[in-house]
Each structure stands twice: as C-alpha cells, then as structure tokens.
C-alpha cells in the first residue's frame, strides 16, 4: 500500500504568470525611471533588475514544468489530484480595465495641469491601490502588503513634488516601486503558509 505523498504549502494559482507580469512591470519601472541616473548608476539599477527578472523567469518556467509533469502519471493518464484553476477571470479583467483608465486619465490630467513629472507618482499610486482589489479577488493577503508599499512609493513621489525636490520623484515612485514589484514577484514563487 502506497503512502499518500505529503504536499507542503503551494504558491497561489497563477503565481507563475502573476510573477512574470509583476516582474516585467517592475523592470519597466526601472528602465524608464533610471534614464536620468549617471551611467554607472543606471547600469547598476538595470543589471540588478534584469538579474532579478531572470530569476523570476527561471523559477516560473521550472515551476510550470513541474506542474505539467505532475499532472500526468508515469502511465500517461491524468493524476487524480484536481487541477488548480488560474484565477484570471472577469473580476481580474475589470480591475485591470479600471486601472488602465485611471492611469491614462490621471496622467493626462497631470500633464494638462502642467505637471507631467508627477506621472510616475500617479502610476505608482494607481498600481499600488489596484493590488488591494486583486488581493481581495485572489484571496491573497500578501497583495495587501504589496499594495501598501507601492501606494506609499507613489505618495512619496507626491511628497517629493510638494517638498520641492522633484528629482526624487522617479527614485521614490519609480525605482523603489520597480524593485518592490520584482521582490514580490520572487516572493510569489516561494511557497509560504497563509499565502
């Protein structure tokens, strides 16, 4: 008689795709917002970001491959364990659509008011707050942490503007947000209790 295999805590359904999406956006934040850095500073930011994203890609591909292999028994029949559905359903797409409208509308408004430099702070704020809704939809408490940190990065950009240090807006709202998204992309691929 075979003993049932003990399965430890698993990442959330769709963690691989979610990590790739979050990591890609994190890398975009770094590429766009490091353009005013010195050559050495930009190289350090980009090399670190690219390395983090490469690890995300490696882990996501490896985990997806493991899942595919686990779904098929050695005899070629499907395993008896139920498949986990990827949670990118209607609610997800509604949240993404509202986010896109807020990003576009807010950025246009800020540019129209003569403050295009606040665009990155607005983007970080909207991206951060949308993770609150995603955390609710996916039932992932860690998204609330991500939401809080990235939203605070956006707010820090607005504070930098009002404190008359606009050069720090891309650092607080762009670079910090980029690294936070990359870090959470890595974290999502690590199985933890309570998710």
TrEMBL record:
Keywords: Membrane, Transmembrane, Transmembrane helix. The keyword Lyase does not apply. The chain crosses the membrane at residues 12-33, 39-61, 92-113, 119-138, 145-165, 171-192. It comes from the Bacteria. This is DUF308 domain-containing protein. The lineage of its organism: Bacteria, Bacillati, Actinomycetota, Actinomycetes, Micrococcales.
């Amino acid at each position: 008689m075979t003993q049932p295999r003990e399965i430890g805590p698993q990442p959330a359904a769709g963690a691989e795709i979610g990590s790739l999406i979050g990591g890609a956006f994190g890398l975009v934040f770094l590429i766009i917002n490091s353009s005013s850095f010195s050559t050495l500073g930009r190289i350090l930011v980009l090399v670190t970001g690219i390395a983090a994203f490469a690890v995300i890609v490696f882990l996501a591909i490896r985990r997806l491959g493991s899942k595919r292999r686990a779904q098929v028994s050695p005899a070629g029949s499907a395993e008896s364990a139920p498949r986990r559905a990827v949670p990118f359903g209607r609610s997800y797409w509604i949240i993404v659509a509202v986010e896109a409208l807020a990003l576009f509308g807010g950025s246009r408004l800020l540019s129209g008011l003569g403050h295009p430099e606040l665009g990155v702070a607005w983007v970080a704020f909207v991206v951060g707050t949308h993770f609150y809704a995603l955390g609710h939809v996916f039932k992932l408490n860690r998204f609330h942490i991500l939401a809080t940190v990235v939203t605070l990065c956006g707010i820090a950009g607005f504070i930098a503007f009002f404190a008359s240090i606009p050069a720090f807006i891309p650092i607080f709202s762009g670079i910090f947000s980029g690294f936070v998204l990359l870090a959470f992309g890595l974290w999502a691929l690590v199985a933890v209790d309570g998710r």
